[in-house]
Amino acid sequence: MASRIPILSEALAAGEKATAVDAAMVTKLTDMAGDFAVNLMIALIIVVITVLASRWISGMMRRTLLRVRGFRHDQTVLSFAVQVVRVVVYIIGLIAVLQRLGVQTTSIIAVLGAASLAVGLALQGTLSNVAAGVLLLILRPYKVGDVIEIGGVTGSVQRLDLFTTQMSNANNHKIVVPNAKVLGDVIINLTGQKTRRIEILFAVGYSANLKQARAVIEGVAAAHELVLPDPAPWVGVTDLRDSAVEVTLQAWVLVDDWWQVKADLTQGVKEALDAAGVEIPFPHQVAVAYEPPAPGPDPVEKPKPEPRPEPLAPAPRRRRSGHKS
Fold first, then answer.
1. Residue of 85, 46, 48, 47 whose CA lies nearest to 63
2. What is the sign, positive or negative, of the torsion defined by CA atoms of 33, 37, 42, 47?
3. Which of 23, 44, 220, 266 has the highest CB neighbour number within 10 Å of its CB?
4. Could you report how far apart the first and last alpha carbons of the chain are, in Å?
5. Residue 249 banded pLDDT, cuts 50, 70, 90
6. Cα-flanking dihedrals φ and ψ of residue 147, to 5°?
């Protein structure tokens, strides 16, 4: 009986020790869960603050740029700067959230630095678009609202982002072009200047009085109220076609009036030439009577020569068989 008492006491001691260890582990897990919950709540608060701060800072950036005279009416710079500010604020907020959740951002930065070459090679197209967007913002070959032509595509610039340039054509089609392609191609800014020249080609007949035709065309251009007097409209003979004489009209107008003035001058010159009796030739089809010739006589067939009789072949000679005596 006495020998069982030490064994029982050892078992009780071991049980108390195990209970103490479990209690310490539970306490530690509870503390860790509490800390994680607190850090998670703080991380969510940081996310909310990041979103609000990005809006506030981007708005402040927009208001600051609006005070600058050079950027006041340039929506390209405003939208680009606001987007860059928002991206920077989001990156800072993300790093703060990771640090609050216990992620070692220094190690992540070290890994990203080691993998920067691979990332750069994998994202070279995207990075080139970003670099091209920055250069387009600095060089400013066009701005929001300009009508440009890139690679045979014409449209009005709606937005310049970090990666793409968004345009809209006359049919209201949305056109998205990467900035690298825009910077590497020929850019034709149709509305980059204040004035623009109209050039219309007219055709008059060879029998028309060319001086009269030129005077009529020049009078129509000079009488239009939206045609600029300086430089004055010019009219001249520019080509001799197969069935018409080409007369060219050149007139300068403001950029916003280009389409309407061109339509007005085309219609006005046509009506003025008709009123002056100047012929405007157009393709004609002439019907010519055609009578096919009568068929000729059949060719006379020559009589075929009669076949000659073939000569008979000579009969073979027979040998006589005899006995010598």
1. 85
2. positive
3. 220
4. 167
5. very high
6. -100, 115
